[in-house]
Amino acid sequence: MLVTPLLGADGEVYAIAQGPVSINGFKAQGDAATIISGVPTTGRISSGALIEREIDFHLGSQTSLRLALRNPDLTTARRIALAVNDFIGAPTATPEDPATVRLTLPYGFNGNIVDLLTDIEQLMVQTDQTAKIVIDENSGIIVMGKDVRVSSVAVAQSNLTVTIAENPTVVQPNPLSLGVTAVEPNTNLNANLSESALSVVNESVSLQELVDGLNALGISPRDLIAILQAIKATGALQAEIEVL
Fold it and tell me: What's the distance, Cα to Cα, between the start and end of the chain in Å?
């Protein structure tokens, strides 16, 4: 990507983006046929922006802050508040919702809000992990958490194989016709569909058993994405599915 300004809602330039674009996908095209895998028109630039304008904010002058949890959870928010209050010895932290914990500078604290954050940032808190499956449909990547469970379910899957071959044909004009030699595109498309019988994925008690059961079906990651979404629709998958 060439140098590209990134504008805020106020029309001001806050960052400049540039660098190589990483694309998860490809496109192959012949004279009369095209095949596309993934999404070749989207990509990511790793560390591809330089900040040009900072947002006016003075942390040290604040008397209260809100901690935003990356993974909202009521249990985790409560554990954070309890850990902070036990360490400071005063009601300093209050869980407001699953994603927010409010910090208030306690009366008589020797320092500002930066000192308070420095004192509590090393606290160890056991987070409450939710069962989740993260899917990137562009690249076909699937990541499962250790708490993912599936009830007994039967799965049938069809394997579709498509082959494309280009065999252009040279067309010669008739003698004395004043015509010119031309090349006519000729594309051979073959699709093979092999049906599979219903396979049973038994109720799992661990992530390894779930993976072994799905691998036994002999399917590709992209087919596995569709199967996981279908199992979730039946209610047999005890996990959240997050699509990137």
Answer: 22
């869980």: which residue's tokens?
Answer: 95
**46 and 14 inside one domain:** yes
User: Is residue 81 located within the same domain as residue 112?
Assistant: yes
Residue 70, CA atoms < 13 Å, CB-side half-sphere: 2
Calpha distance 90→84 (Å, rounded): 9
Mode of pairing for the β-strands spanning 159-166 and 187-194:
antiparallel
Tell me whether residue 100 is exposed, middle or buried, using C-beta atoms within 10 angstroms of its C-beta: 0 to 12, 13 to 18, 19 or more.
middle
**Claim to verify: residue 99 and residue 187 sit in the same structural domain:** no
Q: Are residues 91 and 188 in the same domain?
A: no
Per the CB < 8 A criterion, the answer to whether 40 and 22 are in contact is no
Number of domains in the chain: 4
Condensed to tens digits (0 to 9), the pLDDT of residues 15-61 reads 888 888 877 777 777 777 777 776 777 777 877 788 877 777 777 77
pTM confidence score? 0.46
Task: Please report the DSSP string for 143-177 in residue order.
Answer: EE-TT-EE--EEE---EEEEEEEE--EEEPPPTTS
Classified as helix, coil or strand, 44 is strand
CA atoms within 13 A on the CB side of 145: 16
